[in-house]
Structure to design on (139 residues):
């Protein structure tokens, strides 16, 4: 079972473990990228980050090893979208700001498997659930 039920999402966050979701393609035709959202528990709060990386070779499941999509980003990339006091509020903020879907959250570092499957499937224009890929709001 790849995706986490809400109870397991909240359990992971309460145990101090991040959850994440692959959001599909990003960037432009000249500079193809991907993005994913992460909810990271940090000292009793929940930070929501949007990550963007270059969609490049070699194919990897380790998303953080991919170079940043935008050249002006530092090595430790990610855009902080929200900070909340409760894990459920973090989920709501992530879903509102990025278009993430409650049914597609995975444990930390597992979004790379989603990316791997996306590349092997030929970078389809629709997500595995048959819906268009989410489009995060501009900061």
């Amino acid at each position: 079972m790849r995706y986490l039920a809400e109870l397991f999402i909240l359990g992971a966050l309460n145990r101090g473990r991040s959850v994440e979701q692959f959001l599909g393609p990003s960037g432009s035709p000249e500079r193809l990228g991907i993005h994913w959202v992460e909810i990271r528990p940090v000292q009793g709060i929940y930070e929501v980050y949007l990550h963007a990386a270059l969609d490049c070779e070699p194919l990897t499941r380790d998303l953080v090893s991919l170079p940043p999509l935008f050249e002006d980003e530092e090595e430790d990339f990610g855009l902080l979208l929200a900070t909340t006091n409760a894990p459920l509020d973090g989920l709501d903020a992530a879903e509102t700001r990025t278009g993430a879907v409650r049914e597609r959250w995975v444990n930390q570092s597992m979004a790379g498997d989603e990316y791997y499957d996306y590349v092997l499937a030929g970078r389809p224009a629709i997500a595995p659930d048959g819906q268009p890929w989410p489009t995060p709001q501009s900061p």
